[in-house]
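Subject: Chloroperoxidase structure
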Amino acid sequence: MATGTASGLPRVPQTVTWSEKMRTWRDGQGQERSPCPFLNTVANHGIINYSGQDITTNRIRHVFRDDFGLKGLVLLVLMGGVHTFAAQERLHTRIASASHFHLRQIGQHGFVEHDASLTRRRHTCDNPKRAIPRDNAMIDGLLALAEDGYVTYNSVAQWRCQVRRQEERDGLHPPTKFPLRCRILAAGEVVGLLNVIGRDGRISVADAECFLKQERFPDNFEPAKLGNLAMLYLLWLTLVVFFKEEYVYWFGKQKDE
Ligand code: HEM
């Protein structure tokens, strides 16, 4: 049975089927949200607390493991991030048993949030919250590079390169100040976008627009539930995407040139 949350909205019980979870989407405006389109989307569908607050680590593990079939090292890495935010919250509240976090923590610059975003403006000292809301013009820029109606690794590499070059022109970050860790994290996010939300390394423009702009799962979306080998493959792909993006940046010909 659904129980209430701090936001007064019903909490989705863990026994509810995926298609029932999909029906509960509502716009997240005015709620606490993060720079991560995935976490915002599961909040907008009420799969985690719609308010974006007091999300338990158990709840998010359930979403990753049972809804999305993520396991092994991939699950460990994702949960590692979540546990760090929960530990911060424990320190902050001084409640030793607390094991929850809030979406606002995810926007903290320099931990997971980085300067290599595809759909967000980079954080600046003047405006640290600039990196949290999505920027629809940036999303349009990415979608415009789709190939045969699909956003692919190539589209993403081209777009990332355009964003980096523009920021360098704006004097925001010379390449030497763009840390390796950020680039690898960013590559992992691309792998998630094209294989967890999309399939087999690509996502249709319509689905990408739905997921990135509305922060909503596309109609008829079903999680892929990948096997153990596929998990290793995702990690391998992260390295491949990282090298591909670097190659396009240093040696590739830009579509706008
Ligand atoms: C299945 C799980 C997940 C998927 C598919 C996913 C997907 C994505 C994607 C596609 C982006 C890139 C957005 C962009 O470049 O504009 C992103 C960004 C981000 N994700 Fe996630 N994510 C997942 C889990 C998580 C978790 C567990 C955390 C935190 C513990 C997290 C934190 C972030 C943050 C902070 C960003 C912003 C990075 C930046 O642009 O500065 N994500 N995510």
